[in-house]
């Protein structure tokens, strides 16, 4: 069945003169979080040269020999390198990508690629991560205000100076798609389970699509109509995650998104690089919305619950595929 598309405006929010415009930015940000769950931020203060450096650093990592990349294997602490290992409940198939996940704290003890393999990687990555956290903190102040919390409420819960910080930078490399045979979505439809995601794309490497429509955080199913999210120079694409949707008592929407498989001649059949920063609260942060719609949990408990929901949905999908195979 052909994909159904719908044109939807992606709100664009400028962070210029933040302190003077904080009320205006808060209103725009909360409206976008309620209506779409996706928005672009501009005038965020991160120089394009720094973004380009991080993309070059990411590409250098993925071009390393396989033994070097595998020297920092993925671990259940959500750090390290993985290759075609993420299977989505929406597709029952592995994403056509490799990725390397980085954190600030204790989980990275033995997961940094060595300077022997890639000189300067750790310092470059941490500098960029701190830049992203500074932008995230501005957004968190606005989101806290919108929900009636103190300004520093979410910032304190995501303090990356603490060893039990869980915020994650994910370097992503999607593989070139063959133009013959069966093709798969590079990343199947999913929602992020964290607080807030900041995403960088590269010009000419399209594929990101969104599908708004979830009303409560416990829903898994997505809608039918998708909207393409085009690359825009200087912008960071942001989306609400399940944790913030729960923390806002379902006021802010965590939106389904995917990186679609190329189908048309104008699609990007070549490689795709992207960089995602997932704001995730410290393990002992207490999470409950102002209306207390959901029971209070810690950051660590929410992550465990989200993983449980993911694997339950995945098992359901795999069982459906097995039953269909038997019928055939």
Characterization of this structure:
With 328 residues, this protein is an alpha+beta fold. It has one domain: Jelly Rolls (Sandwich), CATH 2.60.120.330. 32% of the residues lie in helices and 20% in strands. The chain has helices at 18-35, 48-62, 66-69, 121-147, 153-157, 242-247, 299-327; strands at 4-5, 12-14, 38-42, 80-83, 97-103, 168-174, 187-190, 196-201, 208-211, 225-228, 236-240, 256-259, 272-279, 286-287, 297-298. It is globular and about 55 Å long. Keywords: Iron, Metal-binding, Oxidoreductase. This is Fe2OG dioxygenase domain-containing protein. GO terms for molecular function: metal ion binding; oxidoreductase activity. Belongs to the iron/ascorbate-dependent oxidoreductase family.
Secondary-structure map:
Blueprint: E1 4-5, E2 12-14, H1 18-35, E3 38-42, H2 48-62, H3 66-69, E4 80-83, E5 97-103, H4 121-147, H5 153-157, E6 168-174, E7 187-190, E8 196-201, E9 208-211, E10 225-228, E11 236-240, H6 242-247, E12 256-259, E13 272-279, E14 286-287, E15 297-298, H7 299-327
Helix pairs in contact: 1-4, 2-4
**What percentage of amino acids are in beta strands?**
15-25%
Task: State the fourth-level CATH superfamily.
Answer: B-lactam Antibiotic, Isopenicillin N Synthase, Chain
The largest sheet has its strands arranged as 2-3-11-8-13-6-5-4
Return the domain count.
1
Low-confidence stretches: none
- The number of strands is 15
Element string (H = helix, E = strand): EEHEHHEEHHEEEEEEHEEEEH
CATH topology: Jelly Rolls
Major sheet attributes: 8 strands, mixed
- Going by CATH, the architecture would be Sandwich
Please report the distance between the alpha carbons of the first and last residues: 19 Å
Radius of gyration: 19 Å
Number of helices: 7
In which range does the helix fraction lie? Answer: 25-40%
Kindly report the average pLDDT value: 89
User: How does the overall form come out from the CA principal axes?
Assistant: globular
Structural class: alpha+beta
**CATH class category label:** Mainly Beta
